[in-house]
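ARCHIVE CARD
SHELF: 3
SLOT: left
DATA:
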Amino acid sequence: MEVFTHNLESLFQQLGLPSEGDAISSFIADHPLTEDQSLISAVFWTVSQRQFLEEAQLQDADWTEQIDTLDTLLRKT
C-alpha cells in the first residue's frame, strides 16, 4: 500500500480551489465554522467537494490529516 503525504495546498487543489497561500488564507477567513457546525455539512462546499471530504474521512484516507487541519483552521476566530 502506498502512503502519500499531502499538505494543505494539495488538499485545496484536490478540492478544485485556489491553492496559493493568500487564497487559502482568504478562504479560511471567509468561511468560519462554529463549534456546532460540521465541516462536511458546511454550506459552502459543492456536492463533489462534500463527497470527497466525506469519503476521505470515512475511509481514513491519507487526506484525513489535512482535512482535520482545515477543520481546525476554519474554527479559529
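SLOT: right
DATA:
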Amino acid sequence: MSGKVYLIGAGPGDPELITMKAARCLAQADVVVYDFLANPELLGLAPAEAAHVYVGKKGGDHTMSQEGINALLCDLAAQGKTVARLKGGDPYVFGRGGEEASALWERGLAFEVVPGVSSAVAAPCYAGIPVTDRRHATEVAFVTGHEDPTKASSTINWQALAAMGSLVFLMGVKNLPEICAQLIAHGKPAETPAACVRWGATARQQTIVGALADLPQKAAAAGLKPPAVTIVGGAVALREQLNWYERMPLFGRRVLVTRARAQASKLSAGLRALGAEVVECPTIEIRPMPDDGQLRWAAAHAADYDWVLFTSANAVEPFLQALLARGRDVRALHRTKIGAIGPATAQALARRGLKYDLMAKSFVAEGLLEALADHDLAGKKVLLPRATRARDVLPEELRKRGALVDIVAAYETFAPAGAKERLEAIMADGLGVITFTASSTVDNLMDMLDEPTKAKLIAESASGALIVASIGPITSQSARRHGMTVHVEPAEYTIPALIEALAAHCQQS
C-alpha cells in the first residue's frame, strides 16, 4: 500500500508562523524530509519515532540534488510511508514544490500541498516594510533573483518590472548589482527606496536600507550573504514608522530554554512575545517515581500529618495520584495544613481543588522556613513529597525545630534521551542567552558538554557575550559553582519575573 507525501510550507523562520494544518500533517509523519530554510524547531512537532532526513540546499552547497530529493520522496511514499516534506516558506513560491509534486504524480503516488507563509511577504513584514500600500504601491511582483542556469537567456521582463510599485526579489544576493542596474537601465529612478532583509523573522534578521543605486554597495559593505530578500519601491520608506519587530526588547537574542519540555511552553511563549528566537533543549525530564509503596503509604496516612509541604509543583500530581490509588481524595487532607513554595505550586494545588494554608514569600526552601517561623513545630508530623535529589536544608531545619519529618520521593529528574546531541548542535549555531529554572537544569547541561564547549560557555558568560539568566539564588549558586557568570536573577523567583528581568537587562545592555 502506497504512502503519502505532504509538501509543507514551513514558513520563513519564526516557528509560530506554521499553519495548523502543517502541524497536523507533521504530527502523523513517519519521515520528515527537511531543507536548510526550515526551522529545526519544527521537527519537534513530528512523532518522537519519526525519521529525519536533511536534504538542505543553500547557495553553492547542495546536500542532495533536486532530482535526488524527488526520487527520495517517491521511494518513501512507495514504501507506504507518510512523509512530511518540510520546505522553507511556501512550497510553490520559488520552492520547487511543483517539481516534487510532478515527480509524485508521474509515479502515481498520493500527495497534498500545504501552503506556507512565504518569506516574500514575511521578511519585509518583519522588517517593517509592507509589500503593498495604497500610498506607495498598488501592485507587487515577486521575482526570482536566481534564474535556472540551464535557460538559454533571461525571461525576466525588466521593462515591465521597472514600471511597477513594489518588487520583491528572492535568492538575489549574488546578483544584486545586476538586478539594480537592470531596473535603473529600464527606467526605475535610481533614488527609489530599496532594502535587503537577511534571515527574516528570526533573531538573526539583518536589514539594510538604501536607494536602488547604492544598495549593492551597502550590502557588500555589510557582508550580506544568503538567504535574503530584496524589496524595491516607495513602501520601503515606511520602515521608519512600521519597524515593529526589530524594536522588541529581546530582538536579536537567541535564547536557550533548558526547562523540562512539559513545562517549557510558558517560558518560551513569554520570550517569543518579546521578540526572542527561542530554541528548546530540555536538560531535565521529570517522571513520577516507580511505585515502591512509600508514596502510597504516605498518601494513605496523609490525615495523620499536621503539615504537607510541597517544594515543587512537580510533586503535587504524583502525591494526589497516590492518594487516589488508595481510594481517597482531597477530603483526606481536611485537617492537614498545606504549605506551598511558590505561586506555581499553589496553582498546581488549586487545579486539584486544594488551597494552601501557607506560601513562602521567597520561593526557596529558606522561604518556607521563614514562613513557618511563627508556627510551633515541636512534635508536629511533617510530610515532604519531593524529588529524589533535593537539598536537605528544609528537613534538617524542621527537625531542629522539633518536627517529625518524613521524606518521600514523588518524582525524579534525569537527562532526556538525545539531549546531548541536540545541545551540541544548538551550541554550534551560537547563542545569546541561556535560561536556567532549576539547579538540575544547570548540572545536567554542564554534564552534557565536552570540556572545550564548557570552557567556551564559561568564557562567553564572563565577557557578557552570553547572558546567563537564572530563576533564583539556588539555581544561580549552581551556575557559579560550574564557573558561569550570572547576569540576570529576578527579585521574585517566577517565570514571568525571569522574563521581565531578562528583557530589562537586554534593553540596558
